[in-house]
Sequence to fold (515 residues):
Amino acid sequence: MTHHGEASAATLPQFPKSFWLDSVDKLPQFPALAADLKTDVVVIGAGITGITTAYLLAKRGVKVVVLNAGPILEGTTGHTTAKITTQHGLIYHEFLSHFGEEKTRLYYEANQEALILIKQTITELDIDCQLTDEDAYLYTSEDDYLNQLQDEYMAYGQLQIGGDYLESTPLPFATKAAIRLKGQARFNPVPYLIRLLQEITKLGGQIYEGTTVVGATHEQPSIVKTKQGHQVTCNYVVTASHYPFNDIKGAYFTRLHAEKSYVIAARTEKAYPGGMYINVEQPTRSLRAVTIHGEPAVLIGGEGHKTGQGLCTHQYYENLQKFGEDKFGLQEILYRWSAQDVFTLDKMPYIGQQFSDAPHLLMATGFRKWGMTTSMVAALLNTKIVLGEKSPYEEVFTPHRFHADPSIKTFVMQNANVAKEFVDGKFDLLHKQPEELSPDEGAVVSVKGKRAGAYREPNGELHVVDTTCTHLGCEVDWNEAERTWDCPCHGSRYSFQGDVIEGPAKKALTKLTVE
Fold:
């Protein structure tokens, strides 16, 4: 173990940066949509779900256009822990009591099919993306959780998932019990998706970034409208972003909440024993190996909280650092990053028809941090719906199941604060546009699909800044009383023009221009 005198060897990097995005020389770039188009299917969102959907459709000869608000791959997909597994935390026992055996088995089978298909795709296209077969472990270090772990193992038996119940794990610290599931995998999603993007283009698909969708007409064919004024006419629309953009009718925001989670990538003093691990108690601890610059390293993840409700985001990284130091000894922390993920009320993703009266408007969201397999589940299911093919999974994932279960309606009441946070603009899709601000109004806004801050002076002059604090990369928020941008992490404050008022930040916020 490192002694306190030497702890500085493993300091946290100053700014968050994802290893996955940093692991490739260059991310592919695509133009913004500059003309009206006609196509078969428009896919909105170019994360792993949107890209996989477009790839499967293009492979089947469907004409597809992908529209993405910001730069490609810079959302959740570029910030994942990238485990390809059907072991999704303590879920199968809960699903059995909620949905019954048939639907729970279908959930498992859909994800198992996805896992196999991801591996096959990587082999078929010969993609160099660190694909490694690993056992996955769901473990606990606390006696209080043994019953839940045993219930989960019973559910594995009932659903014929397989798996082993173990009293201990290969980890270098004490655990009380674990469920091991063999034949799972891990990979680097960025080179994988870059290759799929190349395939989509080769198959005639068109991809546009810097193109924000503002609506789609309800009738078929549908007209997808963009903020920039161009439109795409199509037979089907697949929304593959966290929040469905045309969501006045579905009120999905009352049935979804976003959570942040955090990751550090570190070289450790103790050798990592192999396997992928996640605990069942709070706070979450997720572990897997990764190769960085040819050297073995470990991804340590967890510390989830509802978005907008964890104020000092830096403390979450510090907690992961402390855990890594205690359990493995840290030589060097190479990267740190965070991701935002969406949860549905009943933890089952929403995939399929968004509205019962518009069979051509499809969606996929609510992956609950298990987006690697679930994105493939969503891509397969929505592709089948577009092609008019039947799928046994349609009913399991239907976004309309909400109306069937009265207990879920009471859940909405308990989730009132989620809706409040949502309406308060904590979420990506409800950020205002800078041009909507009144004189003497400041707010978090969206610029090119990214979070930014804007203030309009009483004389009408508009100031737009990047909301990333220059101290350690936390996100600043608008302080209406003082007309300042304040950092919840270490108290840095900036003027509405972005200049430092008080430290520890030394550098001004980056000024942004808005067309």
The chain has a mean pLDDT of 89.
